[in-house]
Amino acid sequence: MNTSKGTLFFTILLLPSIICSPLVAQEIAIKFATLAPEGSTWMKVMQEWNKELLEKSGGKLRFRIYSGGISGDEKDVLRKIRLGQLQAGGFTGVGLGEIAAQVRILDTPFLFQNVEEVDYIYNTFEKEWEDAFKKSGYVLLGWTEVGFVYFFTAKPIQGLMELKGIKMWIWEGDPIAEALFKSLDLSPIPLSITDVMTSLQTGLIDGVYCSPLAAIALQWFTRTKFMYDFHLANASGAVLISKPFLDKMPKDLQTLLLTTGKQHLNRLTQLSRKENKGAIETLKKNGIKLISLNFTQEVEDYKAMGEKARRLLVGKLYSEDLLDKIENALKQFRTTQKKIK
């Protein structure tokens, strides 16, 4: 065998391994989709993260970002990830539940009273959440908490019992919201999140639920007049990447993505919390009237509804064992916090 033929022979032998090897010696662009609009804090943090990835990888790793829902709602994004058209996404609890149903326990009604409780439960059960995502073929890059969720309506009500007079939106296919409204004996109008603004404009609905920051980012506040100062739940969020895609990346780039992700997305959660507080003041300045609950008994009634709603979801989204563990962990944490105070 002469030299040229030998070279050709070994090249042909090596070709399959080159094709099947991890993504090397080329720019890796992670196609990432989110409902978050351009210009929002979420997108600013994603751009900063992208900049760090480019700099530290020497231009080998970057995000290609599709914001503002241009890739569809979260179920559309998941379908596109399965098809290989996208590789990562920013998801609220609705999308996360499509991947790992038990994670939706974090979004259940009246579970958390404050952000300290949120952090405690997320951290205590972190391995369970990560394992659940991996089992479904995704890797958690970091949490992106949406924040505490409130009702916004175009007409005033004096309590949740009066919601029957409101044409309330429900995120289509969201079992958590369905359980909440069932516990309140309500029949909301199911819609995709991308149809909410148009439906508010046409009068198809006149009530929504979201975080204060989301009400501004999505401009829903322009079609509502009242916000009820009693949070329904803490809405979870996370950035996930396809595990098969991540596994093909060189180890050094995997490590870079995972370590920087935790840092940037943790900062995003802290910024979101701060901006949600500021968003309430912005909403008030823009004509939104904040209505508070005045009766302790009413608050206790809502908490009881939350417990009922959480039990309705046992066996559908999560096990009774997991719910018991989380509720007991919260009771212990609250007892400890009271002693410290």
Please render the helix and strand layout as text.
Elements: H1 3-20, E1 28-33, H2 41-56, E2 61-66, H3 74-83, E3 88-92, H4 93-99, H5 115-124, H6 126-135, E4 138-143, E5 147-153, E6 169-171, H7 175-183, E7 189-191, H8 196-202, E8 207-210, H9 212-217, E9 226-228, E10 233-235, E11 237-242, H10 243-248, H11 251-285, E12 289-291, H12 296-312, H13 320-340
Parallel strand pairs: 1-2, 1-3, 6-7, 9-12
Antiparallel strand pairs: 3-11, 4-11, 5-8, 5-9, 5-10
Helix pairs in contact: 2-11, 7-12
Provide structural commentary.
It is a single chain. The chain is an alpha/beta fold and 341 residues long. The protein has a domain at 28-146 and 235-279: Bacterial extracellular solute-binding protein, family 7 (D-Maltodextrin-Binding Protein, domain 2, 3-Layer(aba) Sandwich), CATH 3.40.190. Helix content is 50%, strand content 16%. It is built from 13 helices and 12 strands. The protein has helices at 3-20, 41-56, 74-83, 93-99, 115-124, 126-135, 175-183, 196-202, 212-217, 243-248, 251-285, 296-312, 320-340, and strands at 28-33, 61-66, 88-92, 138-143, 147-153, 169-171, 189-191, 207-210, 226-228, 233-235, 237-242, 289-291. A 5-stranded mixed beta sheet has the order 2-1-3-11-4, sandwiched between helices. Helix 2 links the parallel strand 1 (28-33) and strand 2 (61-66). Helix 2 (41-56) packs antiparallel against helix 11 (251-285) and helix 7 (175-183) packs across helix 12 (296-312). The model is unreliable at 1-25 (pLDDT under 50).
